[in-house]
Design goal:
Length: about 425
């Protein structure tokens, strides 16, 4: 059956009769869905949030950097649909799974979304399908978690279905890179599974990078994000040390990056944000303990990066002290809620932690973000739900720049006489005290 299954799937991919299913229509799943539609495939999107399907059917985008026009063109082909009905998984030949993989309060992997998705798939499986996990996770998840659940259907891996892992590599709102021009790592549970998954992704990306196993593919994604987490922790630590010495870390970085070899610039910030860098390294830390290994670099980097919001608050207190005001009772306007510049993505944003810390110490905090007019419900910060973006004005005691939106670069900060705490190196000069954090 396996040989016939492989040949059948490869033929369907070649003649584009292969029906693609995408589970999870967020920052990873939606671009994936659109990319396959644009290459001539019929695609069914699945999400437990009915509002996403409704938006897509209406030709509307719920992600800032994905234009509504792109969705409208995809819908107009008649090859794209979105549903909450997992029974339609029987119609697809391949299911690509892009669901969240957060950490729990003990910094351990929360596999709820992957487990729930796999369990939801089981009743609707049929012979001759492939299932590909894209969610960033620890090495062994595909083999140890997803496949055993899928096999409770009585269908057997390699005989009745294939499984693979291909980590997402989305960078929201990066004008240089998109799904199609980013090489895609692919690992299968068998050579046959790899061949099918590799052929499938080869239809939408500039280059695939086949590897020997799902574990290698899972590990490659972790390495990418651990590399960033450790280097960001390094510059964050240097930021604190240089500040004590009266040295501007941003100027140091600009000087160092003129070296044409052996150096790559990383930049400090108020803490880590997004769904990848603050979370993914700890997936490996957790798994490594099973093998008696302590990942000291990862854990130290996590400690440094996690401490950054506290450091920023201490700099806010210093800035207010310069003008004779205590933090308690002061009015603070935080510029930027998104975790990175020019996006509407708030996942794991350090801005939430800054707001919590400041309010816990008695400050009255508003936020401004041109891309987030109202704070929607979030898993971790429900207390902020419904809070609205405020106007930038001089009625505050301090401005705290937390996100480097381009809009903020256009502001003449010289018109403000209150202290400004800048965590993103945006302000060249100001009318009041300027503190880098």
């Amino acid at each position: 059956m396996s040989s016939d299954m492989k040949s059948d799937l490869l033929k369907k991919i070649s003649d584009k009769s292969f029906v693609v299913g995408v589970v999870g229509l967020g920052y990873v799943g939606l671009p994936l869905l659109l990319s396959f539609v644009e290459k001539g495939f019929r695609v069914v999107g699945f999400d437990i949030d009915a509002a996403k399907g409704e938006a897509l059917r209406a030709g509307k985008s719920y992600i800032k950097h994905i234009p509504a026009e792109r969705i409208q063109k995809a819908m107009a082909t008649g090859r794209m649909s979105a549903t909450t009905d997992f029974a339609k998984l029987k119609e697809v030949d391949g299911t690509l799974i892009a669901v969240p993989t957060p950490l729990n309060k003990n910094r351990e992997p929360d596999m709820t979304y992957i487990v729930n998705t796999a369990e939801a798939i089981v009743p609707h499986m049929r012979k001759g399908q492939i299932y590909v996990l894209e969610s960033t996770t620890y090495p062994g998840t595909t083999d140890e978690v997803m496949v055993p659940i899928l096999e409770t259907s009585t269908l057997k891996l390699e005989t009745d279905f294939y499984a693979a892992f291909s980590p997402e590599r989305e960078d929201p709102n990066n004008p240089e890179f998109h799904t199609g021009n980013i090489p895609k790592v692919v690992g299968g549970t068998s050579p046959e599974a790899l061949e099918v998954a590799d052929k499938l992704y080869g239809q939408i990306v500039v280059r695939t990078v086949p590897v020997s196993s799902t574990r290698v593919a899972e590990s490659s994604k972790l390495l990418e994000n651990i590399f960033r987490a450790v280097n960001i922790a390094l510059v964050n630590e240097l930021k604190v040390a240089f500040a004590r010495m009266g040295i501007d870390v941003w100027e140091v970085i600009e000087a160092a990056k003129t070296k044409p070899f052996g150096f790559m610039p990383f930049y400090p910030g108020p803490g880590l944000g997004g769904h990848c860098i603050p979370i993914d390294p700890f997936y490996l830390t957790w798994k490594a303990r099973e093998y008696g290994v302590t990942t000291k670099f990862i854990e130290l980097a996590g400690e440094i990066n996690t401490e950054m919001p506290n450091y920023v608050v201490s700099r806010v207190m210093e800035a207010l002290n310069e003008v004779g005001k205590p933090l308690k009772g002061s009015r603070v306007l935080m510029l930027g809620l998104a975790y990175k510049a020019n996006v509407d993505d708030m996942r794991e944003s350090p801005s939430f932690h800054l707001m919590e810390l400041l309010e816990k110490r008695g400050a009255a905090v508003d936020y401004h973000d041109p891309f987030i007019p109202v704070i929607p419900p979030t898993r971790e910060h429900a207390a902020f739900t419904g809070r609205r973006s405020a106007e930038i004005s001089d009625r505050y005691d301090l401005l705290l720049i937390a996100t480097g939106h381009d809009e903020y670069k256009k502001i003449d900060f010289n018109r403000f006489t209150m202290p400004i705490v800048d965590t993103r190196n945006l302000v060249r000069s100001s009318g009041g005290p300027l503190v880098r954090a």
